[in-house]
Each structure stands twice: as C-alpha cells, then as structure tokens.
Amino acid sequence: MNEGWLDVGDGQRIHYEVSGNSQGKPAVVFHGGPGSGLNPRWREDFDPEHWLLVLWDQRGCGQSTPHAGDPATSLEHNTTQHLIDDAEKLREHLGIEKWLIAGASWGSTLMLAYAVQHPHRVSEMIISAVTTSRPEEHAWLTRGARLFFPDHFAELQRGVPEEDRDGNLAVAYHRLLNSPDPETRAKAAHDWNKWDLTLMSGGDNDFTGTRYEDPRTSYTLARIVTHYWGNEAFLEANHILDNLDRLTGIPGVLIHGRRDFGGPPENAWAVAQRWPDAELVFVSDAGHQATSSTDSALQAAIEKFRQGATGPGR
C-alpha cells in the first residue's frame, strides 16, 4: 500500500492511500460522516489482485490537514464543492482516466454530486445507505426521526438553549461546538453524537466500543456534520435528483436497508426512479449500519463490475 498527501489549495492537504494491483481496474471510495475519515475495511471488499483501490480522507478529518478536531481550524473552505474538486484533483494526480466510485451514507451524497459534475470520469457506481442531502432529509435527521426515538430526541433538544430548541438544531449545536469554552464544546459533541448514534444504530446510543469514545474523533464528527447539515450540505434543494439524467449510461447498484433511520428507504427509491441504469437492492434485515446481508449485496455488486472490467483506466 502507498500513501501520500496532496495539496489541494486553501492551505489544505488531503491524505490518500492506494492499494492493490497497479494495473488493475481503478476504484475510489467516498467515506461517510461527513468527517469520519477513510475506512480501511473497504480493502477487504476489493480483491487486490483485480482492483487498484483509492481511499482518501476528506478535508478536516482522518490524516488530512488542517484537522477540524482543532477548534481553531476554520471550516470556511470545507464545502461539498471543495470536496468534489479535491476528488478530481486526486484522480488527476494519480493519473487515472476513469474510476468506479463507491461510498455509503454521506459518501453517497458526495459521490453522486461528483458524478453529475464529472460523469465522463465515472465507469460504474456502488452506493450503500443512499442519501442525497435534500432539505427534507436533514429535517428528518434533526427532527422527524423523533417519531421513533422521542426520549433520545428530548435529550438532544435539552442540549441547546431553550430559545433554540424549536429551530435548526444542527445550527444550534454547531454554535456550541465552536464555543471558546472547552467544556461547552465537549458536552455539545457528546449530546449531538448520542443522537447521531441513535439514528445510525436504530436506537442504541451507548458509546462503548464505538468511535465516539475518542474525544477528538467525537468532536471532529460533530463539528463537521453540523457544519454540513446546518448548511443543507451546500447544495441547492434537489440538486442531485434534478441532475441524475447526467448519469445516463453509467451502471450503478443502490443498496439500502429497509430499517434505516439515518436515511429512510425513500432516498434510494427516489434516486432509482430517475436513474434507469441503476439496480436497487433493498436489504430487509439492515438499518443504516451494514449487516452480513448488506456485505453480500456489496460484494455481489463489486464482482459484477469486476467481471465487466475493460482494463486499467489509466
């Protein structure tokens, strides 16, 4: 495996890792979060004998610099368009002409936004836990899901000043996460991530054994997520759905859990209705987090596109 850092401007360097067959079919993974950093587990899914796999840390997280875990780090130059441009600069830097793009959760929003902007650089797409970051999706994440988790939502509301409880909670929490007081920042990260984990797990918000146990990771995630959700992911409403016609001719597989509270199945359905070249796979026993059934569907999609490989896109 090779790794490096790419200067993408604005004082930002993104970290990336390249593994597998240097002459294999290129694939890149857009990680979730936003702010979670690359997940090395993807290397288990892409056979290194056949694939050239690229993993990268988006701005402000993982090993990219400057890190959003430092409250002094500005997020001014951390938007969806910046991340799209970073991915394209990384492709050019690695000398890849076309690549299969894969991702889950927030990664699906980012990869779809990338693909509708650069469709000629995409060979195929594999998307799990589909999101498009429409305003109604953010409204569900910050308020609508209270229908299933009223107790956890009450705790989320209590974490912000009373005058903010009926407003945009992502904005209110982001304000607290940028407080000059470290205790205020730590409590806001804890309270926000309790809700985030509730949605991801379908109701269990125990931090034990999760990434949220690490204070820096917890703070980074909360700060970047609220930055994006509070700004509607820096996308026009319905931007992705309204531009899916640009993906005509690009084959894709959409994989979505029927029990997903972090991104209801309607998200995947809406994308599939406007992208005829995509196959939609609903996984009955999965939520936002993957199960063995999700993994099987993912591996089937990777194998499908491996068999259709036409050689290295370099």
Automatic annotation (TrEMBL):
Q: Name the active site residues.
A: S105, D260, H288
Q: Where is the signal peptide?
A: none
Catalytic activity field: Release of N-terminal proline from a peptide
Provide the primary localization. Answer: cytoplasm
Keywords, alphabetical: Aminopeptidase, Cytoplasm, Hydrolase, Protease
Q: What is its EC number?
A: 3.4.11.5
Biological process (GO) annotations held by this record are: proteolysis
SUPFAM superfamilies tied to this protein: alpha/beta-Hydrolases
Entry annotated with the keyword Transcription regulation:
no
Record InterPro entries: AB_hydrolase_1, AB_hydrolase_fold, Peptidase_S33, Pro_iminopeptidase
Pfam families according to UniProt: Abhydrolase_1
Q: What's the family?
A: Belongs to the peptidase S33 family.
- PANTHER family for the chain: PROLINE IMINOPEPTIDASE
UniProt name for this protein: Proline iminopeptidase
